[in-house]
Amino acid sequence: MPYRIRISEAARDEIRRLPGHVRQRVRRLIRGLAGNPIPAGAKKLRGLPGHYRIPTLDWRIIYRVDHEEVIVLDLTVRRKVGPETYEDIPE
Questions:
Q1: Which of 3, 54, 61, 87 is 20 to 30 A from 36 (CA-CA)?
Q2: How far apart are CA 49 and CA 25, in angstroms?
Q3: Whose CA is closest to 77, among 6, 3, 12, 2?
Q4: Which residues contact 21 (CB under 8 A, 6 or more apart)?
Q5: Could you read off the pLDDT of 12-70 as tens digits, one per residue?
Q6: Could you tell me whether strands 51-56 and 43-44 are parallel, antiparallel, or unpaired per DSSP bridges?
Q7: CATH top class, domain 4-84
Q8: Rounded to the nearest 5°, which phi and psi values hold at 7?
């Protein structure tokens, strides 16, 4: 059963502001989460249960998977600048 992807309005705005080549890549990766919510290359975030990140170029797609509801939530896209990239992630 494919997972549903729920993208907040803030995340949609973040994606719209990405450079074109990054935006296309991010959208393709997000669509792929419906079939495989934890693809190769995804890494668990320490201290945040159910949260993962997928690196793409200098950017990170950060999201949470709820296996019971079969949904990918709280999606955000951030530029990797250091440990602060992962601050203020919704739990």
A1: 87
A2: 26
A3: 12
A4: none
A5: 998 999 999 999 999 999 999 999 999 999 999 988 889 999 998 889 998 999 988 89
A6: antiparallel
A7: alpha beta
A8: -110, 125
**Which tokens in the block code for residue 36?**
């495989």
- The token pair at 7 is 């993208």
Both tokens assigned to 55: 């690196």
* Separation CA 61–CA 77 (nearest Å): 5
Place of tokens 């601050």: 87
Domain coordinates in residue numbering, the chain:
4-84
* Token representation of residue 17: 């502001």
* Half-sphere exposure (Cβ direction) of 33: Cα atoms closer than 13 Å: 28
- Give the 3-state secondary structure of 12-72: HHHHHCCCHHHHHHHHHHHHHCCCCCCCCCCEECCCCCCEEEEEECCEEEEEEEECCCCEE
CA pair distance 51, 61, nearest whole angstrom: 11
